[in-house]
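Lab notes, practical 5.
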Amino acid sequence: MTRLSRLLIITLVIGCAVLFSGAVAQDYGSVATPAPTAAETNVTIASPEANASVTSGNVTVSVNVTNFTLVEPTGQANVAGEGHLHYYLDAPVPTNESEPAIPETGDYVVSANTSYTWENVTAGEHNLSVQLVNNDHTPVIPLAFETVNVTVGGNATGNETMVNITAQDNAFDLEAITVPAGANVTMAFDNRDGGIPHNVAVYDSPARAEAIFVGEIITGPAEITYTFTAPSEPGTYYFQCDVHPSMNGDFIVE
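Output from the prediction step:
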C-alpha cells in the first residue's frame, strides 16, 4: 500500500467519526431539551372573601383572570385562550366539557366583565361561583372555576357609605376617596365622556397585586351604581380606571 493510499484511508476514517459524533450529539441534544409548558389559565374570586358576611341587597362578585382573553359571547367559533365568564348564584358549577355550562338549578349570567352584581340577594347562606367558558359556553379544559360561600345578613346600620365620583375629560373629579374600615360602599359613578369607556376599580396598591373591587366598564355618557365592601384593615389603598390607568387616586380606609 502506498503512502498516498494510507493517507486517504486515514482521512476517510476521521471524517466518518466526526459525522457520527455530530449525529449522536444532535440526537441526545433533542432528547435532553424539555418542551416549553403553556401558562396556566385560571380565574379566582377577589371579593367577597370565602365565608365573608355581607349585607343583604346587592352583592358584587369581582374576579381575577389570568392567561385568558375575555370577549363578548356573540356566537363566534371557539378560539384557544379566549371566551367569557359564567357567574353562578346558588348553582352547582357545570363541568361537562361537551355541553354548555348552564346549571340545572340556581341562577347564572353570561358576562365578559370581571365583576357582576347580584341584585336583591336575600339574607341567609349563599354560594357564589364563577367559571371560564369557551365562546360556545362549554367549560374551558382544564376546568377553571372558583366557588365561595358567604353569609348574607340584614341591612347594617352605621356602616353604610355613599360615594359619588365623576369621569369627565379623561379625569376623575376625586383624587382621594375616604371610607370607614369594613364599610358597605355604594358608589355612584357618572361617566360623562361620550363614546369613551371608563370604570372605577380598587386595588391594594398601584402595583395592583390584589383586586379589592373591579367595577363594570361603561361607555359614556352613562351612569352606574357599584356596591362593595371596603377592606377591614385601615390604610391607603388605590383606585383607578382600568381602561385609562392615568386616572387614579388614593382609596383611604380609616
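Observations recorded by the TA: Confidence is low (pLDDT under 50) at residues 22-38. The helical segments are 3-32.
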